[in-house]
Design a protein that fits this description.
- It contains one helix and 35 strands.
- The chain is mainly beta and about 475 residues long.
- The protein has a domain at about 1-125 and about 260-455.
- It is globular, with a radius of gyration of 22 Å.
- Residues about 1-5 and about 10-25 have low confidence and may be disordered.
């Protein structure tokens, strides 16, 4: 069942105040209103109530199925002794590998993907690494994922739309917080944050060659829609985009004006027309933060002028603190942002919020008197989860959280981020960790669990659904 939640609207205009259709009129002049429709989401549903689910990522396969992967929980364990009765949710299916699920019905039901597509066992025979998943897809529909053991970076591959993961490179690189980006058929880029490295594979992830160790991108790279053969886009740490036209060999950096962000890396997206967007969400600074000074800011990059908007756009949020932004973009001018949000009344209750816009780089409209006006992006904002997905403190110190002597202050069950995406029909969805399930004795659970929430009303990220094909099959699975 879905329900519409309280919606906030941002109006940012250039020049004089502009009366829009359906609003107060000035001198009888009326102008089209690009405000998106009210947005609502389904109630959060658990992808898996028996397994860990921090830092979940997603990808939509060419057959329309949704694939989700999450951290196995090893460095996300809640150390409070009262959580011990729930240890089974950490141990269930533990194979020193990240955890993977697939939904063939738009997120209604989920199947855990283990050995040869079965619902138990390790996903790949030669891969290892309990943390840092990331998903991507190449032009041919091959899906790639990664996992690390704090030393090796393993990359594993699914040629059958996420139903199984038979191929893996156990040591594609070494380092911390890697990301993958699919490009042409059998081409995938591997970014490693620390120490900084960019690797490239052109044989479907079997082997990798080092591209660079010195470049301005800082986070997950995005395939450039304006240069799909050899273009890459990367977020910059302080806000902005780094652009490569030659498969990561050389880069140009374009810093952006944005507000503060409680995140370890930048967040960017590019729509299918090539416009680039960046978002920050900040205010929450850790378990001792008592000041509700959160903000969510947004900016857009014009490829022709090579400039960001001079000042960031403030997305309207309820009072409180914000953190962990992620952004996605669809067709021309369509973008959505997600973040965690608390309120001054309940600073230890965190909700998932989503904002979206249909004119992300502004819109020039013709008014009733024949004049043209430029309208900056207009956002609809909604409490997408409707209920808290976490109650308590959230630790922002990475793996150092595990050394905290304050159980609640060192709580890292959610990991360090969560993500937003859209399906082949353009429906927005969010995958997140959730720590609200109790253990068998009613106390806290030692791990978070993965949840899924999906758009039920409002505008979509796509004007028309993407074409899908039949699922490819390697094994006699239920969907084949």
């Amino acid at each position: 069942m879905s329900r519409t939640l309280k919606v906030l609207t941002a109006v940012a205009l250039v020049g004089a105040a502009l009366p829009l259709a359906g609003t107060a009129r000035s001198q009888g002049v009326r102008c089209p209103d690009p405000t998106p429709k009210p947005l609502s989401f389904s109630k959060p549903s658990f992808i898996d109530k028996r397994r860990a689910g921090g830092e979940p990522v997603s990808v939509v396969a060419q057959d329309g199925s949704i694939v989700v992967s999450a951290h196995a929980g090893t460095t996300h364990l809640y150390k409070d002794p009262q959580a011990l009765p729930g240890s089974g949710d950490f141990l269930t299916g533990y194979s020193n590998q990240t955890l993977n699920w697939r939904s063939a019905d738009g997120g209604k039901t989920w199947r855990y993907v283990g050995t040869a597509g079965l619902e138990e066992g390790p996903h790949s025979p030669t891969s290892s690494g309990f943390s840092d998943p990331d998903l991507t897809i190449d032009r041919a529909g091959n899906i790639y994922n990664i996992e690390i053991n704090l030393a090796n970076v393993s990359v594993f591959k699914s040629p059958d739309d996420g139903q199984s993961w038979p191929q893996a490179n156990p040591v594609a690189a070494s380092g911390d917080r890697p990301w993958v980006t699919g490009q042409l058929e059998n081409e995938v880029f591997l970014y490693v944050n620390l120490p900084k490295q960019l690797w490239r594979s052109t044989d479907g992830g079997l082997t990798y060659s080092l591209v660079s160790t010195n470049f301005p991108a800082d986070g997950k790279l995005v395939s450039d829609p304006s240069n799909p053969e050899s273009g890459l886009l990367g977020p910059m740490d302080e806000g902005g985009v780094a652009i490569s036209k030659d498969d990561g060999e050389t880069w140009e950096a374009y810093p952006a004006a944005l507000g503060p962000s409680s995140q370890f890396f930048g967040a960017i997206a590019a729509d299918r027309s090539g416009w680039i967007y960046a978002a920050n969400a900040g205010g929450y600074n850790g378990d001792d933060d008592t000041t509700p000074d959160g903000s969510v800011t947004f900016n857009y990059f014009n490829r022709k002028t090579k400039q960001w908007r001079a000042t960031p756009i403030e997305v309207p949020i309820v009072p409180g603190d914000a953190m962990w932004p992620w952004i996605v973009a669809g067709d021309d001018g369509r973008a959505a942002i997600t973040w965690y949000q608390n309120t001054p009344q309940n600073p230890d209750r965190f909700y998932i919020y989503v904002a979206y816009t249909m004119n992300a780089h502004g819109t020039e409209v013709r008014c009733s008197d024949g004049s043209r006006r430029f309208i900056e992006p207009r956002f609809e904002v909604v409490n997408a989860s409707g209920r808290p997905i976490h109650e308590g403190k959230i630790c922002l110190n990475g793996t150092a959280c595990n050394a905290s002597t304050n159980f609640e202050g060192g709580d890292r069950r959610l990991g360090d981020f969560f993500t937003i995406n859209f399906d082949h029909k353009g429906n927005i969805f969010v995958v997140s960790g959730d720590t609200t399930l109790p253990n068998p004795l009613g106390g806290p659970n030692p791990v978070g669990h993965p949840i899924f929430i999906k758009q039920t009303s409002g505008d979509k990220m796509l004007k028309h659904p993407d074409q899908i094909r039949e699922s490819r099959c390697l094994y006699p699975l239920p969907s084949c």
